[in-house]
Structures are given as structure tokens and as C-alpha cells.
Design a protein that fits this description.
Low-confidence stretches: 1-52, 418-432
Number of helices: 6
Distance between the termini: 101 Å
Number of strands: 28
Largest sheet: 6 strands, mixed
Structural class: alpha+beta
Shape: elongated
Strand order of the largest sheet: 20-19-18-26-21-27
Length: about 425
């Protein structure tokens, strides 16, 4: 009997447990029903509140990949930039830090596919690059690459500029950069992609390789009067072929003076001088005689010598040669053509050519020209028996724009943006 009672009690306990479990299930069903009323009604995820551990945040719409330098790369040139790809990105940023966590200054290229440090990186240093791309969903996607730069190379190429900071030049002055060693043709596009020119007001222009050791830049038209121009060569640590590397970066800022332009007509034996488009003086001249004619073409004042001596015995021989003191000399060609004062030919100036190829003017006019011109001022001589040879001086303006463009190691791309005069913004060329 007691056993039967115990059995009944246990059965009763089981029923009570089932009732409790049934009650809990009912409460849970009500809770779920209430919770379902807070969803979007279409089986989607709740707009707020707790989520299950299986739910993962949506992947960013944008994506970023660092192309160069590769992760864990060694012996990377100190000139390296960060090349990357970014898809579906509305905003992209690049951060570069050294091994101590210090940030490296730099900026994105105009094309938005690369980033250059403000200067050459340190040799033998480890850096970490981070590229962050953010899409229209506002979610950032990042890519990182840690790399180590090469040890300081033993073979370095020095890079120099003919012009110095704050120098004031004429409107025809080309920018001239020289290398202490020839740059192989296969490397010139790399060098040129690291060369930028900024002008205010904005002006279209391009670099032109004159030789393996010299590159020049000129705008499509003469520089605008009173412009400010700066140019950079980011070649520190840049491979230049044969195990040679650029020694250091180069930065120069110059100013352009008034537009003083000289034009000489052999037919009239006159020089016309304009300043900012207005004629300010007309000067009688004597050009080269028929046996030693002056060159016809557009030249630029290369140097100015208040006093000098012309010695032509080696060039012309003992019969034609001479040694003469000269005042107010302004060199136009490497071959020896100058504008200069020639008091001995003042009687022929404006009437007949008697010089050995120079532009002869009176002592007074020579002094006036010397005081009103500067290095880089252009002069065009017309109508003589000899054509100016390109390379005989700074003959950049003796070439058409189409000819000049052919000397670039990078493809020429005409500007497509709004006219600079309207925007007032400076130009930076060329882009990589």
C-alpha cells in the first residue's frame, strides 16, 4: 500500500512538472508573439535591440587593396609611393607610419590611385601603410602593408636646378633640371612622373628631355607676366638605372617679371621692345654681315655681362679674329651671338649689317636694354640668311608646341578642366 502511495505521489509530481513546463511554454509563445509585432513584418532583422550571435554586420560596400609595396617587402627604394586600388569608394585616405609610430606627410596624386610622401623615406626603416576606402554606406574598408626600405646606396646621382629660390626671370625662361649622370631612356618616365610644376595663375606646360642629363619645362605660351612658379623633383632614393639612385629631392620657387619681349627685323634693321604688350622703345641695330649672319629664330637671354672681352681668334683665325672689350653684353646662343653695345658701328646701325652675328646697338641703347631686361626675356630675329639651330642656346621657344611635346617621356594629355582664368586655381603638372 505504501508503495502504491509513493507511486501516486511521484506521478502527481510528474504532472505538476508537466503543468509548470506547459505554463512556461505558453509564456514563451506569448513573448515570441509580442516580439514578432516589433519586426519589419517581412521576416527581416530587428531594427534595434539585441541580435543573435549568428548575425554578422554587413560587409563594407567599398574595398581597398595595396598594390605596392607588397606586404613584408624588403629593400624597397626610399622613393617609393603607395599604389593602391579602391572600388566603390567615395572617399579614400592613405596613412604611412614609421616603426616608432610617427606619421609621414604626403598627399594623394590627382589620379587618386597613388600617394607620395612629401620627401624620400629613411633608409633601412620599417613602415606601415594603411589605405582606407569609404563607400556610400559609410562603412570603411582598410588594407595594410608593412615594408622595409633599402640600405643607403653607394651610387647616387646629384640633381640640380639652374634657377634658385626667389629668382626673378623673364617670360621665356625654361625651367632647367640637370642630372650628374645620364638617365637611361627606360627610367625617364619614372623620373618625369615625380616632377611637378605649380603655377599661379594656372598655365599649361610640359617637360622636355633635351639630353640624357637635362630636362626642361616650358608653358605652351610665354609665362604670364608676374606669375609665381614652383617645381619639385621627388627623386631622392629613386632608381635611375645601373644600380644608381637619386641623391635627394629638389624644390625651387621662382617669380616671373613683366613681359619684356624683343623683336628684331632684318628688313628694317630695327628692334622693337614691348612690355606687357605695349611698345616702349624702338632701337636701330646692325646684324651679322653676309659672311657671318645672325640667326633667325626665337632665343632667350642666357646671361648678362656688364663688361666682358670677346676673343674670336680661335674661332675665326688670325685674319678674321679679334679681341675686343664689350659693354652691356647679353648672351643669346652658345655659339657666341649676343646683344651688346657696339659704339664702333653706330653709324651703320639701322642701315647696314656689319657684325659677326651679334645684335649691335649703341652704347646708350645697350645701357637701356641692360637695365630693362633680365635672364629669360625672349628675342625673335627675323629675315636673316641663317636659321637658328635648336640646341644652340635655350631654343625651347624655337620649337612648335607639337615638337616640344614629343620630347616628353610621358604621354601628353591636354587639360580638360575649366579654364584656369575662370577658376583662379593653380595648376600642377604633370600628374602621374
Amino acid at each position: 500500500m505504501r508503495a502504491v502511495q509513493d507511486q501516486l505521489i511521484r506521478h502527481g509530481d510528474d504532472r505538476r512538472g508537466r503543468r509548470r513546463r506547459g505554463f512556461a511554454a505558453a509564456v514563451l509563445a506569448v513573448t515570441l508573439a509580442l516580439a514578432s509585432a516589433c519586426t519589419d513584418g517581412g521576416g527581416g532583422k530587428p531594427s534595434g535591440g539585441w541580435q543573435n550571435g549568428d548575425d554578422q554586420p554587413a560587409a563594407p560596400k567599398a574595398a581597398a587593396t595595396i598594390v605596392e609595396p607588397k606586404a613584408d617587402a624588403k629593400d624597397v627604394p626610399a622613393s617609393t609611393g603607395i599604389t593602391f586600388t579602391a572600388t566603390e569608394a567615395e572617399q579614400t585616405s592613405v596613412e604611412l607610419k614609421d616603426s616608432a609610430g610617427g606619421a609621414v606627410e604626403g598627399e594623394l596624386a590627382v589620379d587618386g590611385r597613388s600617394w607620395l610622401p612629401a620627401g624620400a623615406l629613411k633608409y633601412g626603416e620599417t613602415y606601415t601603410a594603411t589605405v582606407t576606402a569609404t563607400g556610400e554606406d559609410g562603412r570603411p574598408a582598410t588594407a595594410t602593408s608593412t615594408f622595409t626600405t633599402m640600405a643607403k646606396p653607394g651610387k647616387q646621382v646629384r640633381i640640380s636646378s639652374f634657377l634658385g629660390d626667389d629668382q626673378v626671370v623673364g617670360v621665356g625662361m625654361p625651367l632647367i633640371v640637370k642630372f650628374s649622370r645620364a638617365v637611361p631612356e627606360d627610367y625617364r618616365d619614372d623620373v618625369q612622373s615625380r616632377m611637378t610644376v605649380t603655377s599661379v595663375p594656372a598655365q599649361e606646360g610640359i617637360w622636355h628631355w633635351v639630353s640624357p642629363t637635362e630636362i626642361r619645362y616650358r608653358p605652351k605660351e610665354f609665362w604670364k607676366a608676374n606669375s609665381t612658379v614652383s617645381y619639385r623633383v621627388q627623386a631622392g632614393g629613386l632608381p635611375l638605372g645601373g644600380g644608381w639612385y637619386g641623391r635627394a629631392d629638389l624644390s625651387v620657387g621662382i617669380k616671373v617679371g613683366p613681359a619684356v619681349v624683343m623683336t628684331v627685323d632684318n628688313k628694317t634693321k630695327r628692334m622693337t621692345v614691348t612690355k606687357d604688350g605695349s611698345v616702349i622703345k624702338t632701337i636701330p641695330v646692325s646684324l651679322g654681315k653676309k659672311s657671318t649672319p645672325s640667326s633667325s629664330g626665337t632665343m632667350v637671354v642666357i646671361e648678362k655681362l656688364r663688361k666682358t672681352v670677346f676673343d674670336t681668334f680661335e674661332e675665326l683665325g688670325p685674319e678674321e679674329g679679334y679681341r675686343t672689350k664689350i659693354d652691356y653684353a647679353q648672351r643669346l646662343t652658345w655659339g657666341g651671338e649676343f646683344i651688346h653695345a657696339a659704339p664702333w658701328s653706330e653709324g651703320q646701325q639701322g642701315r647696314v649689317n656689319v657684325s659677326h652675328g651679334c645684335v649691335n646697338v649703341s652704347m646708350a641703347n645697350g645701357a637701356w636694354l641692360f637695365a630693362n631686361t633680365r635672364v629669360g626675356d625672349p628675342i625673335t630675329v627675323k629675315g636673316t640668311e641663317r636659321k637658328l639651330q635648336n640646341g644652340n642656346g635655350w631654343t625651347d621657344w624655337n620649337m612648335s608646341w607639337e615638337q616640344y611635346v614629343k620630347g616628353s617621356a610621358l604621354p601628353y594629355e591636354p587639360p580638360t578642366e575649366a579654364a584656369p582664368e575662370q577658376t583662379g586655381e593653380p595648376t600642377v603638372t604633370p600628374t602621374t
